[in-house]
Amino acid sequence: MALTKANIVEQIAENTVFQHNRAQEMVETLLEIIKSTLEAGEDVLISGFGKFQVKEKNSRIGRNPATGEAMQLAGRRVVTFKCSGNLRNKINGI
């Protein structure tokens, strides 16, 4: 099962002095800050967790898998994530 935004809000409310409404506001605010920073093309570095980066993908020739027809795919921006060494070690039980 995936961790959802609602689960995060619930855990914050349970593990802190903040009530559910305040915890939800904090999570929403944090996510909006991250989204607006990435939209501006800036990196988001969360120490001990990882780094979100926006990377530019060039336009390229692709193929329609159903027909095999070649088509031009437009350039785009994608978000990548690289986890920190601390997180990688924790996941691997080191």
**Sequence of secondary-structure elements:** HHEEEEEH
Shape, per Cα inertia axes: elongated
Helix content: 40-55%
Rg of Cα set: 19 Å
For the sheet with most strands, the description reads: 3 strands, antiparallel
Give the rounded overall mean pLDDT. 95
Q: What count of helical segments does DSSP give? A: 3
Strand content: 25-35%
Give the number of DSSP strands: 5
Stretches where pLDDT is under 50 for at least 5 consecutive residues are none
Structural domain tally = 2
As laid out across the biggest beta sheet, the strand order is 1-2-5
CATH C-level name of the largest domain:
Few Secondary Structures
Backbone structural class: alpha+beta
Q: Oligomeric status of the shown chains?
A: single chain
Features:
94 residues, alpha+beta, HU Protein, Chain A, 2 domains, 3-stranded antiparallel sheet, two-stranded antiparallel ribbon, 5 strands
Summarize the structure in words.
With 94 residues, the chain is α+β, with helices and mostly antiparallel strands. It folds into two domains: 1-40; 42-94, IHF-like DNA-binding proteins (HU Protein, Chain A, Irregular). The chain is built from three helices and five strands; from the N terminus they run H-H-E-E-E-E-E-H. It has helices at 5-15, 20-39, 85-91, and strands at residues 44-46, 50-57, 60-63, 70-73, 76-83. The chain starts with a helix and ends with a helix. 1% of the residues are buried. The mean pLDDT is 95.
